[in-house]
Amino acid sequence: MHHLHSGLQRLLATTVFNLFQSELQCVKEELSSSARPLVELRGISKRYGELLANDAVDLAIRPGEIHALLGENGAGKSTLVKILYGVVEPSAGEIQWEGRPVTIASPVEARALGIGMVFQHFSLFDELTVAENIAVALSDDWTLDAVRARLGDISHSYGLALEADRAVWTLSAGERQRIEIVRCLLQGPRLLILDEPTSVLTPQEAEHLFLTLDKLSAEGVSILYISHKLEEVRRLCQTATILRAGKNVASIDPRAHSAREIAALMVGNEVGGVRSTAPHVPKGEMLTVDSLSLPTGSLHGVALSSIDLAAHAGEVVGIAGIAGNGQSELFAALSGERPTDRNDAIIIAGHPCGAAGIDARRRLGAAFVPEERLGHAAAPTHRLSENTLISHAAAEVSRSGFILLRAARRLARAIVQSFDVRMPEADPQARKLSGGNLQKFVIGREMIRNPAVLVVDQPTWGVDAGAARLIRQALVDLATAGSAVIVISQDLDELFEIADRMAVIHQGRLSPMKPVSEWTKESVGLEMLGVAENSGEAVHAL
């Protein structure tokens, strides 16, 4: 009886606590919604020649609010954030800070107001320590000892564990991001801008970040959150401003809308999921990798160790992992950018080709899409028709000897039409396309050949919802038609949506390949961290 009574007491206490927390959250949101905005953008416009990047945009962020900024690639998000952070000067409009007009002419002035920004691409010095990287971004008043002391305080307060004297090059992507966040927090920001903050994080690291942001919000720090991952926006943000073609088209509570509804607002029409017209039935092996090992190719590269991989005709194989764990090295080995000593280490369509280069592998029916669009996949100052020759000339040489530029122009037009590539002019230079449109062109250029094997690295990196859906559907359709598709991606949602089988790469080693149905996001995350599931090490890592 006593145990029953104690149990009821605990249940009652838990219920009261949960109700209190719920009421506290409601009161906090009511206070936030009634408070004067910390920062308000009124009628902000920015014109670049004929292009109107921002068109009379209004945006208000209140104290303690986590506010999402959403939109397709080219919608005007980056321009708006650069204006707020003092990188770009607006053509028209006004910024108000705590109700008074301000001019933000530089990032220095933005930081003086209390605006901090964590960019998608980290700006850290690999050879310096954590403390040294933080110190170089602060004023001369900060000594290294003072940085170490405050680093310890902030790391403890917000759960952002960092070792002050660790060299940055030894850290994971998640730890590097913590440095950027702590660097901002040491400046006492009142508004924190985060650009695609979870793009290089494991699910566990992302959840840890969300808890940190929740705590900052509870302390009154406002957060402007930019992301293409709509489910995390729905979990984290109280308000979302949606831009389309430079205009503010909606301001909503993302928690009250589905991810599909939000995506439809972003692109202007319904965004469906990826569908396969027929179940994928794996057939013969089109790509075989046998005990592939490669030493590091650069000072901070990752060595590949005993990689085994098989991809069959008619399936999508996913390779997950945190950035910097050997993905680039694996792509270079598969594509022939880094030939191996053993010819039988890589077999394409039954032909050993480990020692062969890219052109020879293309002639075997393979196609490759590297992570870096501009400079690696496409020559920036060359026109799209000329960029078509990059892969097609090598692939066709055995049949025709060469491809006339006229034929390349026709092929480029076919790619543009099939993959909805939006261009500022006919046959533009590659650098004139937005990132999402260039990615669609590069993937279309490889897929239009109907390759036997396609290896693509980060297919939808920084791509909006509409373009991502088109690319993923095209990859699934290619596998359905009988190709072997290998997708290297840091986006777990993407891999769970399109892959048939999946493995995880960590520090140059590949985990066993398993059907996607046998993975969970948690188990993938643990593999990405390099710890065994259900082990004490796994508990410690979390």
UniProtKB/TrEMBL annotation:
Keywords: ATP-binding, Nucleotide-binding. SMART domains: AAA. It holds the Pfam family ABC_tran. It comes from the Bacteria. GO terms for molecular function: ATP binding; ATP hydrolysis activity. Transmembrane segments: none annotated. Residues 39-270, 287-532 form the ABC transporter domain. Belongs to the ABC transporter superfamily. This is ABC transporter ATP-binding protein.
